[in-house]
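Example record

The entry below shows one chain as it appears in the dataset: sequence first, then C-alpha cells.
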Amino acid sequence: MRMSDLIDKKKYDSELSYDEIQYIINGYVEGTIPDYQVSAWLMAVFFNGMSEEEAYYLTKAMIESGDQLDLTAISKSKVDKHSTGGVGDKVSLIIAPIIACFDLAMAKMSGRGLGLTGGTIDKLESIPNINVEQPVDTFIDTVKSVGFALIGQTGNLVPADKKLYALRDVTGTVDSIPLIASSIVSKKIAAGNDIILLDVKFGQGAFMKDAESAKELAASMIGIGGRFNKRFAALITDMNQPLGSMVGNAFEVYESVEILKGRGNPQLRRICVETVAYLLRLSEQYADLDEAMEKINQVIDDGSAYNKFADYVHAFGGSLDVFEDESWVFSASDKHEIKALSSGFIHHVDAETVGRAAMIAGAGREKKEDSIDHHAGIQLIKQHGDEVQEGEVVAYVYTNKAIAPAILNELQRAVHIETNAPAQHSHIYAYME
C-alpha cells in the first residue's frame, strides 16, 4: 500500500476502505507518512467529501490510535454535552452540577480556548487554587462521589486527532464536515460516555455560519456515533449573540455561580434548563420536557446544584468564596464604557465582535502559547430586547492592557439598535436524534 496511491484514489473521489484509512492514520501518528502527503489527502477530502462509511472508518481509526477511557467503575449512566464552541459559552459549568442532582453522572474532559471560543478549563482555572489536571483515578473517584467532574484532556486519547487538527489548521482544511465530525465523535467515544448531546452552534459567533450547515454536521455526528452503539442527539443552537451577560474566564465562572444560586441572567438560565431537560429525556429519566424543566428549576432553587458545584471545586482544591466579591471578579486595572449609539431596542449584539474584543482584552488566545488574563473580559449590561437611550452604557470592557480605540468603536457598532421592539428570540433552533 502506498500513500501516493491513496491520495490519487481520493482525488478522483473513490471511497477508501477501512484498511486504507487505518494505514493513513497509523502512518501519520507513527511518523512514517509525512505532513505533505497527509496535507494532500486532507485537501482531497475537503473537496470531495467522505461517505458515511468512510467517516465512520476515519473515526474508528482515530479512536484506535490511542487509549480509551474506561468508566465502567461509575455505575450510573454517563452523559456528556459537547458544544462546538461559542462566545460566552459557560453552559457546561452550569449543567454538570445540575445533572449530578439526578440519577446520572457526567465525566467530562474539556479543552482550552483558542481564538474567539473560550475553553472550559481556562474558565475553571480562574478559581483560586483549583487543579483540573487530575489523574484518571481521581477523576473517576470524584465523579462517583460528587456526580460529575470536569478535567483537562489527559492521557493518550485520540493522538491522531491532535496531529490532524494541527495540520488542518495550517492547510485550510478545518471546515470539512466529515473531518469535523470524525474529530468530535472520536474524542467523545474514547472518553467512555454512554449518552452524548451535541450542541451544534451556528451564526456569527460559531464555526458553522448557518442552520442548515449545522444540521448537516449534526446528522453526520449522530450517524457516526450510532455505529458505535452510543446514543447521540443534537441541539442546533443560535450563536449570533453571546451566551449570557459575561465573556471572560472569571466573569463566566461568576455568572455560572449566580445561575446556580438562583440569580443571574434569566435567558442563560432558560438555555441551561432546556439543555438539561433534553439530556434527561435522552437518558430516559423523563419523557416530558416540561416535567423535566420543573424538576431542574427545583434543584437550582433549593441550592442542590450549587452545592454540587462547590463540592466538585473543593475536591480539586479550589474555593468559590471569592466569587461573592464583585471587586475581586472585576479587578482589572482599566474599565472602558461602551455606550449606545442611538435610542431604541437592542435587536442584536454581534457575538463575533464581542468574542474578538474579549480576546484582545486578554481573555483569550490568538496563538496556543499566549497567556490568559482571568480578569479580562466584557460585561454586557444590556442585551437583546432591552430598551436603551442614546449614550446609555450597554457594556463594559475590563482589561489590564492597552486597547485601541478602534476596538471599542467596533464594539459600539456591534450593538444593533432599532426603533421597534424585536421579536422574541429562541436559542434552540432544532433538536435531532
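Notes for this example: The mean pLDDT is 93. The chain has 17 helices and 13 strands.
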